[in-house]
Amino acid sequence: MGTMLDIRGIIEQSYFTKGFSPEFVDAVAGISAVKDYPEGSHVIDADDETADMYILAEGKLNVLTPTGDLIIVLRPPMPFGEVSFLDGKRRSSTVIADEDSKVIFIPENAFRELLKQYPDMAVQALTNLGVLLCCRLRNANQKIAALNAIEEFSV
């Protein structure tokens, strides 16, 4: 029953690592760890000072605003935690396990050191994170536009 989680394979499947060399994927896997989160447990709390990156390996996570509104549902192998990693500010949302979940934890400091050692992969990582943020911003804009349309219709 206790199958070993393929950390490297999951990291490689995530769109966060698109274009990474096999050597760099190995290096990222080497600094990563798997953490278990039972249903209802907090992976990240809004206002935390941490800036680590994560990739959901198994399960389902809910990303919530500080007031508890659902922003997005994360499914494997989605990355998260990128905003604080990039801007160095406190966490802007809370992430809670919607079911028993396994998360690949990529520690900020060790990952930053790897990016220094592999500058070409640093460019790729930052490009991927930029695309990820753009995708999430576009989705948020669509939701805002839909909400505005509902408000205009009901006036």
Features:
155 residues, alpha+beta, Jelly Rolls, four-stranded antiparallel beta sheet, 8 strands, 45% helix
Detailed description of the structure:
With 155 residues, the protein is of the alpha+beta class. The protein has one domain: Jelly Rolls (Sandwich), CATH 2.60.120. It contains five helices and eight strands; from the N terminus they run ααββββββαββαα. It has helices at residues 7-13, 22-31, 82-87, 108-117, 119-154, and strands at 33-37, 42-44, 53-58, 61-64, 70-74, 79-80, 94-97, 101-106. The strands form two sheets. Strands 1-8-3-6 form a four-stranded antiparallel sheet. β4 and β5 (70-74) form a beta hairpin. The longest helix has 36 residues, at 119-154. It is globular, with a radius of gyration of 17 Å.
Radius of gyration over C-alpha positions, nearest whole angstrom: 17 Å
Order of helices and strands: HHEEEEEEHEEHH
**Helix coverage percent:** 40-55%
Spans of at least 5 consecutive residues whose pLDDT stays below 50 are none
Task: Please state the average pLDDT score.
Answer: 91
As a percent range, the share of strand residues is 15-25%
- The CATH class turns out to be Mainly Beta
Largest beta-sheet details: 4 strands, antiparallel
**Helical segment count:** 5
In the residues, how many domains can be counted? 1
Overall form: globular
Kindly name the structural category: alpha+beta
Q: Which second-level CATH architecture applies?
A: Sandwich
